[in-house]
Amino acid sequence: MSLGQIIRQKREQLNMTLDEVSNRVGFSKPYLSTIETGKVKNPPSDELLTKLERTLKFESGLLLHIAHLERMPSDVREEYESREAENQKLRQFLKKLAAKKQGGREVKALLTRNRLNVEEGKRTLAAGRLVPIINKVTAGYPAEFNDLDYPVGVADDYVRCPDLHDPNAFAVRVVGDSMEPKFVEGDIVIFSPAVEVHNGDDCFVRFTLPHETTFKRVFFETGDQIRLQPRNEKYSPTVVEGKRINGVYRAIVKYQRL
After folding, report:
1. Which of 33, 69, 139, 193 satisfies CB 3.0 to 4.6 Å to 178 for a cystine?
2. Domains of the chain (ranges, CATH numbers)
3. Which residues form the HTH cro/C1-type domain (predicted)?
4. pLDDT digits (tens, 9 = 90+) for 11-45
């Protein structure tokens, strides 16, 4: 979600018109409109952004942070956001480690000695979150899965996903043709563990033993059984016992090759 979209969404949530915002911040309605639609030629000044934060009740400094990120050269911004994504995930990893009974005290003492803070900041909006691409998922028969032994959220490659707030979201590359025509080999699909799964959703499915995964439509049948339904009619559905599955994550975004 762009800076202009974020501003417009918040203004509409507050039931404010552009005229009202214009009168409060002292900038013209047409100029504010070009900011919201992304057609502005001159980026909004820090003065205007600060006034918009107060008028629209944003967290102080949030719009400035997003605007400054958008003004960065793309390669610099990508490097910054990649590091920030890894830092966020590392903080989560250390926080969970510190909460464990065994070894937790040593981890907490280490963090204290080095003055490291594992708590995440309050900001949740950004011009785009970098989601880690952890591996491939088979759109066919279940295949052995390897998450490359990375801590949650850390990987060698990332894909940017605007307005995504789930810190545990992950992406995989599709292999195979059982989810065609909606998903084809080479597509990158983002899954969110925070999103509720319903019958008919396209999901990343993780099995217990053997350690395999697959990508299918999911239907919850009676008797704790789950039907894994391919979209490609050439493939037959598979019904498995619920106890064989230890993770079902819904697809929320698809990136495809053009």
Report:
1. 139
2. 3-71 (1.10.260.40), 84-113 (no CATH), 129-255 (2.10.109.10)
3. 7-63
4. 999 999 999 999 999 999 988 998 888 887 667 88
